Amino acid sequence: MIEAGVDEAGRGPIAGPVFAAAVILGEKHSVSDLDDSKKISEKRREIIAEDIKVNAISWSIGMSSVKEVDEINILRASLLAMSRAIDSLDVIPDLISVDGQFSPETDLKVRTIIKGDQSNENIMAASILAKVYRDNYMKKLDNSFPEYGFKQNKGYPTKMHLEALESYGITLEHRLSFRPVKNIHESTR
Description:
Elements: E1 3-9, E2 18-24, H1 42-55, E3 58-64, H2 66-72, H3 74-88, E4 95-99, E5 110-113, H4 121-144, H5 150-153, H6 159-168, H7 179-187
Parallel strand pairs: 1-4, 4-5
Antiparallel strand pairs: 1-2, 2-3
């Protein structure tokens, strides 16, 4: 049976898109040090992500834009990014294992696993790829908006990020539907 693991990264930040990955490692893969992406250092995640891309049977990335997050909400945008990742796989799996309790739209068989990023290697691999791709996107975004500290905070509402929002205002990369951004947006109307 061919299983794909699916996970997302970027539900909590107040800026940037949400990314998802789908990964089919195969039963006899050689990728080591798999774990929940949040438990691995950034440097180590980068190394493992390269290992996943080289050794996986198939992998893909899906994304939902900030505009989509604001229009359909973060949960639906996360599920949409997951569907896009699944649809982009070049091997059709027999089963999709998704981290969490919600499943994306797909015609394939799906099972949800709460804390799957801590117990299922395909989901762990997807967790790592999604996080690496999102973090790298935010680092590139930092070049355009250095005052917000995206390289460090990855779009999360840190004290420095919130102070920058107050000082410099809202960018097109900020999620207007998220409370800190929404409050600033409404106060400047």
